[in-house]
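Suppose a colleague, Dr. K., hands you the sequence of a protein chain of 367 amino acids and asks what its three-dimensional shape might be. Before reaching for any lab equipment, you can write down a predicted structure in token form. Begin with the sequence itself:
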Amino acid sequence: MKKIEERAGFDIVRYSQVWEDADLLLKALDINKNDTVLSIASAGDNAFALLSRSPKAVYAVDLSFPQIACCELRKVMYKELSYQEHLVFGGVCAGDMDREEVFHSLTLPADVKNYWSTNIDSIRKGFMTIGKFEKYFALFRNKVLPIVHNKKRIDELLISKSKDERKTFYDKKWNNLRWKLLFRIFFSRFVMGRKGRDVEFFKYVEGSVSDRILSRTVHALTHLDPAENPYLHFILKGSYSNVLPFSLREENYENIKQNLDNIYFNEASIQDFITGFDGNLTAFNLSDIFEYMTETETDELYSVMLEKTGPGARFAYWNMLAPRKCSDEISKKYNVYTNEEQNANFLAEDKAFFYSKFYLILLTEHE
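The predicted structure, expressed as tokens, is then:
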């Protein structure tokens, strides 16, 4: 069986932002100054969020050099730009700036500088908006959503309401026939696999993709408050105003900036990095990495990770559509503990609402 790096391309920026709730991740992992953290890098947002808690080190790993280039650019932005400049340069907030001129002023590693120099149009547009997934949302926002609702109705969705008011608004004003039909088409396995993610990312997914995503979307629009959801704001508006994800909030900026010497980005698979790592890892942000693996491969990676850590280690990850968790055999061997009720509560508050499961796994002690 070929691994995901052999089945899908990793030579593009798939994600120029991280679409996983950093507030939830930080609450679950409860990072402290004694932790050495391993994180999926992606576009860097959640790795920087973890860094804000002043751990000993954050090692952020990704198979894709373009994703590493996103992370290294963000790191220098924290170092050399003001808070407002960071947002405008990234393209996630409005402002007057010659992004290309600012880019050439930044002190970047040579390979990262070369990558972005050859993709300078992405810099001009605001590189935090140019990932394949972000373009997918832009297509939804610009071409599909206007057929469903006008700007006034979209703005109304994002006004804070009580839970009962949100439910009534969704049932009476939002959930029309066009919404139901176009949502199921646009977020289908076929369209999402080709325009948003990669067809290989759905290899182990069974059943209707759009139905499951719609169920979670209804939860986000009714159970949670859309007015407080940065991910929903960006999907619908294409930028942030006063509602931002953790790594982009002004109150977190200095904490991240002060700890930048403790974050390290590595182009590698998780398994290769851990195998070559000389040290003890205590906390893991694994994104939705198991989504692309068989159950056997999931257990193999768990075994590698569990051998590199000890009692007190925490593992956090999401399932989007393919159900994956630590097997009973591995759990018994390493005394892995999972609180299913707690994990269900975590998922209920997840603002990045695409995911079907959230797992916090705790290691108590080896046999």
